[in-house]
Amino acid sequence: MKSYTLISNGYYGKFGGAYIPELLFNNVDELQKSYKKIIASAEFQKKFKGLLKDYVGRPTPLYYSEALSEKYKARIFMKREDLNHTGAHKINNALGQALLAKMMGKQKIVAETGAGQHGVATATACTLLGLSCVVFMGETDIARQAPNVARMKMLGATVIPSLSGTKTLKDATNDAIRYWINHAADTHYIIGSVVGPHPYPDMVTRFQSIISKEIKIQLRKQTGESEPDYVIACVGGGSNAAGAFYHFLNSKKTKLVGAEAAGKGVHTHETAATLTIGSVGIIHGAKTYLMQNGDGQITEPYSISAGLDYPGIGPLHAFLHESKQATYLAITDLEALAAARELIHLDGIIPALESAHAFAVLPKMKFRPTDIVVINLSGRGDKDMEAYLKFIL
Amino acid sequence: MKSYTLISNGYYGKFGGAYIPELLFNNVDELQKSYKKIIASAEFQKKFKGLLKDYVGRPTPLYYSEALSEKYKARIFMKREDLNHTGAHKINNALGQALLAKMMGKQKIVAETGAGQHGVATATACTLLGLSCVVFMGETDIARQAPNVARMKMLGATVIPSLSGTKTLKDATNDAIRYWINHAADTHYIIGSVVGPHPYPDMVTRFQSIISKEIKIQLRKQTGESEPDYVIACVGGGSNAAGAFYHFLNSKKTKLVGAEAAGKGVHTHETAATLTIGSVGIIHGAKTYLMQNGDGQITEPYSISAGLDYPGIGPLHAFLHESKQATYLAITDLEALAAARELIHLDGIIPALESAHAFAVLPKMKFRPTDIVVINLSGRGDKDMEAYLKFIL
Amino acid sequence: MKTLQEAILRNRHNNLSVFFTAGFPQAGSTTEILGILNDSAVDFIEVGIPFSDPLADGPVIQRSGTQALRNGMSLELLFTQLGEVRNTLTKPYLLMGYLNSLLAFGIEAFYRKCSESGIHHIIIPDLPVNEFLKEHKAFADHYEVSPVFLVTPDTSAKRIHEIDKISKAFIYLVSGNTTTGNQSSIQTEAIRKITGMKLKNPVIIGFGIKDREDYLQACSLADGAIIGSAFIAMIAESKNLQKDIPGFISQIKGS
Amino acid sequence: MKTLQEAILRNRHNNLSVFFTAGFPQAGSTTEILGILNDSAVDFIEVGIPFSDPLADGPVIQRSGTQALRNGMSLELLFTQLGEVRNTLTKPYLLMGYLNSLLAFGIEAFYRKCSESGIHHIIIPDLPVNEFLKEHKAFADHYEVSPVFLVTPDTSAKRIHEIDKISKAFIYLVSGNTTTGNQSSIQTEAIRKITGMKLKNPVIIGFGIKDREDYLQACSLADGAIIGSAFIAMIAESKNLQKDIPGFISQIKGS
Ligand SMILES: Cc1ncc(COP(=O)(O)O)c(C=O)c1O
Ligand SMILES: Cc1ncc(COP(=O)(O)O)c(C=O)c1O
Fold first, then answer.
1. Which of A108, A241, B294, C5 has most Cβ atoms within 10 angstroms of its Cβ?
2. Which ligand sits nearest to residue A195's alpha carbon?
């Protein structure tokens, strides 16, 4: 049985929790105690809804693709998170948390970023709300997502390169947490996905759940049905997927499909398909699936897409996976690129490399012609032009 | 007395007309005769409105900026055309014309582009509607707007460099018109602004008028008033300004302000401030103000912003200028950059360099605290990061 | 003002005209080339006013115009040059240019100067018939200058008849829908329809005529042809205009 | 299991512990360093289990862990190494590591191996008290291994009392809110409040203690101090551990 708020006591089944050093206890404890109340407050809701509408540009459209529908013999819609201000779903969460931080009296924000989308979204929210902002980003990602680095800097954020590990998202997250430990008193950590210690996975899911809330309403208007047959989303940490799944979690009808990054293939060592090749452990303060060796060392993930290049996954997804309430497919770099090419050429939409993984699910499915399929187009591909130019042009 | 449809017989007062070689007579004549009927048809309207909503992401928000309002002591709103699919207002027109071309039975599209926004918008619309697409772009602009060139190519458009003159928008327009002459039978020319022979200025204005239509509705909802005291927009050819002004053209209350590009200063030779230093003549098939020497040779414009780097201006604006129904200010590169910096740092919005010119009008005005000011944020600045990095970071 | 029309009609199916850009390759080339052409087998001459943005022209003519402007060529200078040689020229010559040059010069001044320079016909490709009638005709008539209009194989019969009515020299039939100098083939069928319309004006074919073969084909269909880009390309290459121009003309005319 | 607590209490305000990463700078360094420390003036020893993602650690300890992993260090190997030397060691030694290493090893297996290796206390910075009680305590008790918990100057009194109740060795007081090796100053006032709480366990200060001065200040406030990053930095530089380690310890202890 699916149920909206799968979380109880900070756990989704056996996944989740808050495995944090004592140094963060007060911060996380304060957050756990206050986040629901603040988020539910009239003041927060009014401000947040206003900004989502007039600043972010919500609701984002639910676009029916004639071309994809014809090709895949189903009724295929996409949720246009790419049209959000700053170009991805990340702003939903960044703005929510920045507002929350402000109401909690924090003046400083620290964040990690992979593709740079969360970093840009956080820097943007901080600028708007007058908070100072530090963003950690792996050195590898800084190199492959240069436009977003420039955007963050221009928005006044301090971008600090993470130099350990593969120098990607995991390492940036480590460094952001360390920074938080060292600046716990006045700083809030805006994590970019449904990962990290409780209450982050639940809080971020709530901020992103606007995606499925809108899908439901829009779908009813456009088709008469409010529940699709499928919702498909890419999964890095899993925030856009969590948001797209949320209001369908206890639907009997809707099948939920996540697309994780297989990189060069799940049987190579260059992959980020956590659920496919990972096992249970602790990463960034939560119990969940992660990629690790026999000794519990977290292994270095690989994906062409910086936003999916993460060796863990949100505990909600670990739970949905284990309880078979959602299906997770591993999509290779090449499959994602082919899907991006198809979307570009059929619909004139250049997706983020991350989102392209969700579209790559289409050729792997067998739909009935009446099936309503909603794909979450989590972000736009401007940041990925270099990769696309290499492979698509 | 202002009146919505200022145009009569293809002229705005003495401006406009269709000064075209006979080789284009049939195409332009066909367009003149059919555009209003097709645009008004239920089939067109249904398809166009649907795409604007679900594909482009309209309505775009009308965002109230607390920070700018406080700084400039007025109630300052911005119309978020930057949130449109492909990142600028250009898609409103490109999609409208592509749809029109398709209903007219054309299979091929030619377009010119300056900043690349119109080229990307056109390539996008063509991809979506299954039309083939050729885009001319000055070699100088190809160099300074590389990301958009990549986008067009990825969308399957053929991008042809224009090598004459300053190798910018004017030259690309010449070449697009030549191409049209050479492929008149099956090709529609999607011009990117309210310039060119009649019916282009009127047609493009109609497609862009959705901007002021939405402003009116949104403003009433947000303030109780449906007419602002000021509407401010940048003017290259003048399409975003035409769209933002349109539904206020016969308002007694609303003052219309256009911002043209002064480049390095109207008294230098490096400027694109057509109304300030130009005179009446013919450019690209229309009678309007243009920058020319005493011998009627069109002079080479300069602006840091590729989309404003044009030596002409739409005949509607020439008319509004001469009849004093609108005011046009010349904004230098440096003023635009300062305005961009301010918007980025106050509101977390990175504007297109073109749009930044509109924001640079603010410090030049004297508002009353109750004044409602709407600035048209015509596009996002992703394409201008290189310029910004040089000047703003 | 009848001379040109009469001359063409007298010479049915065998008129050759060339177009060149004033001030190219040097500012002074205008008069030199006019002189040489006048002594060649060419039937009449079109002098192009160089313009920064020649919409209807292909690359060869564009480039010649750009070079002419760099050479300091201007309409003012062109009229001075024409004034210098008008008494030495025996072949008809007309001006071709874009409307903006004319507007900048002043409409009335332009027609007056034409008249003073021995110009009886002008070709302004971006001047629509209606606009001519409204804004120009009075001056044109007064100074006895008349326009030549372009038509294409796709121009409607009605429109061609209108143009025929107000034209006093010839009708400029564009070989296909193309800018100047383009290699598109001559649309024989469509052209025959036009030449079969019993027009009072002779029909001269232009745009894309490049060699004797094209010329003969044009002459078989109409009253003659105009060569522009190919002539200018030759000039651009030539080291000896005195020799090359007559050679080019003879080669085309087969004389 | 009383030994460590008793030893610390006997030596009130004068306990020095050092932390080093197993397998650094070489895989075999673990036993060598343990041996040297055992013969030095240090009071007890913390052996760090290298981990790929040590959240609570600063750069010095991070880098030593990365190097140790490159050297092929593992928890399995560490237990083997400890097994080899346990009978030669007279000073108390405990393990410090992250929860994921322990989970991968297996919770019960871990505690059993600790016990077999002479480990009576462990420090797992990302293991919350509740989680310990729920998932670990049964095994820990069975194998007679007890946890040391971290507290900070900001930890509530209530929580400190809870931790004091279940702790059997000492309370690890983090000098300030900081990762290891950070140069933040010791929060004297806040620490006094904690040490004045009449806890049953001694309090040892760690994180950011780097020299004799820090050590003396820590001893003036609590029962002693732990040096990690500064010790590892010394090891990383040393060309003669046999000489440098005792020298470092004597210098700090002033003995
Ligand atoms: C556009 C886009 N989609 C998806 C992701 C993956 O994150 P998540 O799985 O949390 O949605 C990212 C991360 O940067 C992203 O930028
Ligand atoms: C964002 C943006 N604004 C404005 C313009 C100028 O065009 P117009 O004056 O037609 O709105 C352009 C042209 O490329 C543009 O990209």
1. A241
2. 1
